[in-house]
Amino acid sequence: MVLFAPNPASCKFLPCSHSWVALHPQPKGVIQFIGSGLWGVLPTVAYGHFLKSLFEAGYTIVAMPFRFARRHWSVALELLEEHYRVRLAMVEAALAQGYDPTLYVDAAHYAWVGHGLGCRYVALLEVLSAPMELMADCCQSLGAVVGALECQRIRQDLAALGQGLRPIECRIQRLTGTPVDYRQPSIMHQASLLLAPVMTDVAGPLRWLVDKCLPAHPTVEQTHQLIEHSPLFQLTGLIQFARDRIAADTCQRLMQEQSHLRRRLLKGNHGEPVGLRAGPVVVDFNPLDKLVQPLSCRDLEYKSTTLLNRLRTSSPLAPCAAAGQTQRHRSMAA
Questions:
Q1: Degrees to nearest 5, angle at CA 158 with 155 and 161
Q2: Which CATH number is associated with domain 14-322?
């Protein structure tokens, strides 16, 4: 069920499929946002100022909550399915409000933004988007047996998801008159921005205990191996914060694994994207940090939209061509 805002020009988040959507009347793109840990459960509240700023920059915003599970592949696949369901819902919403729905049909108009732990799912969506023959090569980094089993299961899950998209394609085609064939579900050709990325479930001293007693699939190390061997990540940017110790190790490893990532170092701490706007200031939820920050002192929103715009206008190298460039890094700078 889709609800509509009485004033479509204002940033009003309303339920759409399993997500929250702020439909822009004249969007230049769609940003799908995945928050970090507990903040990501209520993204429209915890990231209120950040998401509103992206809306005001001209984007339709999709805030995607996610369930907690130790098999991260299944969560990533659920988010991928939600991406297509929300796409149909936004076409319906745009038509209902008299907007042109064309932009919501083309995958190239979509982008992904993750914060903290949410970046793990954006990264897995990128890994899942490689053609299956390259996906099989990527999974071999996990070992012959484990890699073959994971690849077979992922192949089956993607095939099932693809079959489930046929009614969505037919519905979009009937509504817009545009032929639609999404083929293998993926986020191919969609830019992604990682804000203070963290690949673990728990930061700090509990990380070892959680990873030992409740191992995730893929594990932290396996996730990094998949990223390193992926031929994609050509349209991916990374924002790191100067005082952030939680994401520092992950940021360093990501730059080693995919050295072409466009990186920006900004002032602030790990929770910089979190906060609500209150008049001329942003109210933080962490009393141990700044708590209140004047809008005039923030540059995260401007730098994020600027980097996204650059990524979205880049020309990605075809995956098959990128695969043969080097043995270690199989992609080129966007």
A1: 150
A2: 3.40.50.1820
Cα–Cα distance for residue pair 287/246, rounded to 1 Å = 17
pLDDT computed for residue 155 by the predictor:
86
Chain centroid offset of residue 235 CA? 12
> Do 137 and 330 form a contact (C-beta atoms < 8 A)?
no
Domain ranges of the chain: 14-322
Residue 7 token pair: 């004033």
d(C-alpha 266, C-alpha 106), whole Å: 32
Instruction: Look at residues 122, 185, 124, 130 and name the one whose alpha carbon lies nearest to residue 157.
Output: 185
Residue 34, helix vs strand vs coil: strand
Q: Is the pTM of this model over 0.90?
A: no
Phi-psi region of 318 (alpha: psi -120 to 50; beta: other; left: phi over 0): beta
Give the bridge partners for 15, in sequence order. Answer: 20
**Closest CA relative to residue 316, chosen from 134, 139, 187:** 187
| Sign of the four-CA dihedral 269, 271, 273, 279 | negative
List, as one string, the DSSP characters of 72-140.
HHHHHHHHHHHHHHHHHHHHHHHHHTT---GGGT-GGGEEEEEETTHHHHHHHHHHHTS-HHHHHHHHG
Q: How many CA atoms lie within 13 A of 222 on its CB side?
A: 17
Is the pLDDT score of 289 beyond 50? yes
The span from the CA of 257 to the CA of 134, in Å, is 17
Mean pLDDT for 280-303 is: 85
Handedness of CA 201, 203, 209, 212 (dihedral sign): positive
How high does pLDDT run on average in the chain? 85
**Nearest CA to 257 among 304, 201, 199?**
199
Neighbours of 190 (CB within 10 A): 24
User: CA end-to-end span of the chain, whole Å?
Assistant: 38
The Cα 51–Cα 54 span in angstroms is 5
